[in-house]
Design a protein that fits this description.
- Pfam families: Fer4_15 (PF13459).
- This is Ferredoxin.
- It comes from Halorussus caseinilyticus.
- The chain has two helices and seven strands; from the N terminus they run βαββββαββ.
- It is α+β, with helices and mostly antiparallel strands.
- It has a single domain, classed as Alpha-Beta Plaits, CATH 3.30.70.20.
- The strands form two sheets. A five-stranded antiparallel beta sheet has the order 4-5-1-6-7, with helices on one face.
- Strand 2 and strand 3 form a beta hairpin.
- The longest helix has 10 residues.
- It is globular, with a radius of gyration of 11 Å.
């Protein structure tokens, strides 16, 4: 499973940080950070989701008020918009 985070879209509500500890508050920028992620495109960060964190990653995506987080299965199918 893979997670994709569009940091440019993030509005800094930090709801994702309450759901999965891979998201951290960055108060200086007013946005969340996805820990251990690589920048794939301009301000779009991706990382693999450990099996024991799949539920938390999906919840982080579901609570994002601006849909800045997307979760994909191993075949590339989007699980959470």
């Amino acid at each position: 499973m893979r997670i994709e985070f569009d940091r440019d879209t993030c509005t800094g509500m930090f709801q994702c940080t309450a759901e999965w500890d891979a998201f951290e508050e960055n108060r200086d920028d007013g946005k969340a950070d996805l820990v251990d992620a690589e920048e794939e495109d301009d301000d779009v960060f991706v990382r693999e989701v450990p099996e024991d964190a799949e539920f938390d990653a999906k919840m982080a995506a579901r609570v994002c008020p601006v849909d800045a987080i997307r979760v994909y299965d191993d075949d590339g199918e989007q699980l959470v918009p």
